[in-house]
Amino acid sequence: MPDLNGKAYEGGILQSVREAVIDILELRFEVIPELIVNRLNKIYDPSILKIFRRKAVRITPPEVIEVFRPLRFLKRRMI
Q1: How many domains does the chain have?
Q2: What pLDDT is stored for residue 59 in this prediction?
Q3: Model pTM score
């Protein structure tokens, strides 16, 4: 029988990290494109989300789209 508690826990961690990335971006830049939010929600690898969380802290406004542009390629690999 699958460990439902483990999957729920992992899903909760992934959602928390996604929300952290989105929250950081919103705090820094007020509004972020819905496209970025949608793509972040399709990443299921916590190590990739951690990379984007760190990038969200470091980037400057003109870099936002460029830094998060690779998300379109990640979508194919992460799902």
Answers
A1: 1
A2: 81
A3: 0.67
